[in-house]
Amino acid sequence: xxxxxxxxxxxxxxxxxxxxxxxxxxxxxxxxxxxxxxxxxxxxxxxxxxxxxxxxxxxxxxxxxxxxxxxxxxxxxxxxxxxxxxxxxxxxxxxxxxxxxxxxxxxxxxxxxxxxxxxxxxxxxxxxxxxxxxxxxxxxxxxxxxxxxxxxxxxxxxxxxxxxxxxxxxxxxxxxxxxxxxxxxxxxxxxxxxxxxxxxxxxxxxxxxxxxxxxxxxxxxxxxxxxxxxxxxxxxxxxxxxxxxxxxxxxxxxxxxxxxx
Amino acid sequence: xxxxxxxxxxxxxxxxxxxxxxxxxxxxxxxxxxxxxxxxxxxxxxxxxxxxxxxxxxxxxxxxxxxxxxxxxxxxxxxxxxxxxxxxxxxxxxxxxxxxxxxxxxxxxxxxxxxxxxxxxxxxxxxxxxxxxxxxxxxxxxxxxxxxxxxxxxxxxxxxxxxxxxxxxxxxxxxxxxxxxxxxxxxxxxxxxxxxxxxxxxxxxxxxxxxxxxxxxxxxxxxxxxxxxxxxxxxxxxxxxxxxxxxxxxxxxxxxxxxxxxxxxxxxxxx
Lengths: 261, 271
Fold this sequence. Notes:
Distance between the termini of chain B: 45 Å
Oligomer: heterodimer
Pfam family, one (chain A): BPD_transp_1
Mean pLDDT of chain B: 90
Transmembrane segments (chain A): 70-91, 112-145, 181-204, 225-246
Domain ABC transmembrane type-1 (chain A): 63-247
Main location (chain A): membrane
Number of helices of chain B: 9
Membrane topology (chain A): Multi-pass membrane protein
Strand order of the largest sheet of chain B: 6-7-8-3-9-10
Order of helices and strands of chain A: HHHHHHHHHHH
CATH architecture of the domain at 58-209 in chain A: Orthogonal Bundle
Distance between the termini of chain A: 35 Å
CATH topology of the domain at 58-209 in chain A: MetI-like fold
Radius of gyration of chain A: 22 Å
CATH superfamily of the domain at 58-209 in chain A: MetI-like
Helix content of chain B: 25-40%
Mean pLDDT of chain A: 89
């Protein structure tokens, strides 16, 4: 446990202390009856419930389902968004042509498309992946377009003058220049994809943590509702933390990350 | 490195009496941005093995001219030939060194990878690319820094990387666009002498654009003085200073002072 807690960027002791104080406060409020036990189970009960969950196999299948739907959608959305975004970012006329379509589709919440998806793809994994994929696509696309424009014209002219062909310039220059933007987009899109996956499970009944929350609610298992919700939140934190060292490694050359000399 | 046959043909419109081989032939070059005429009728020859300095008042079309010569910008009148080939896009006989080294080097590639990158797209073997990279970095004194990232080096060393990249490309003509304008005075002196050494060792042809009169005289065998925009050639002056040049001895010569006064006057500065 200790080695995990000293790991950079995980909450330090101050944060742990504030979490502990909050839990104790809620516990006190519940025990004294200031908070209705009907809506707020004791934090200690929730933690015990969470403990039961993480030691059972079913919970981890749900975690795998939720993560799988989020990450597969993220991967597919990114695979489309990066090449498309670089293309649109480099060719202003193309970007101008499709901008109205993007600006119309982008603000539509993925969840609003859930009924459409259930009608066409059903309530399996694929329906969920369509929605996590779409939400990731818009997020990464907008940043990839912006990133492609971050290419330094002097660097571009240098490579042109040395006869580096256009596609090679995209791979060797435009993509690395856009990478800080793209990775930020992927990191945010990963969290959003997880939110979308769990929401879709909750509302549409796709397998995963969201479905478990819904099932607990229907069974009157209040501690379970809270425990699953906390688990979903922790999963979101974890997804974010996984991306930070990846970004650090890929962008060590970037001026914002160079060690001061 | 002696001249090969077939490249000695000259522009039919203006027969060249000189029997030296013209590497760069510019005839009646014109360029404007919208309604603003930037380059007006530039005609210039640079011969094989020459080191020619090009000076002009700041804000004149020096950079525009270089971009046209290197095929990065289309020109609207006249012709540009490099090594006998008419320039329509960037020719592979040309190497460029820009002023802004920090922007022309790629920060995510190592020093060696920066030098090697253009060679990937030349019809040469991987082994040869490797050898050329090592040799070029050795000759600019960076053999010990090949695995570093450019931003881990000082400004002067970064510009050496850019020079090595151009050298490894084996250009017939090396165009340098105010290459030392953003380094400190001490580094500048070192890089000037490095340029002279490489030029002498490699029998290269260099066109060196600068706004620094002393630098133009110190390096050049001839000095091309440009006018303000619309830019044309004001004067071409031979530099009769002995080689090898020396930062102290050469600059102390009477002839150096005389040339400085001439260039100064040609640039339009009046006493």
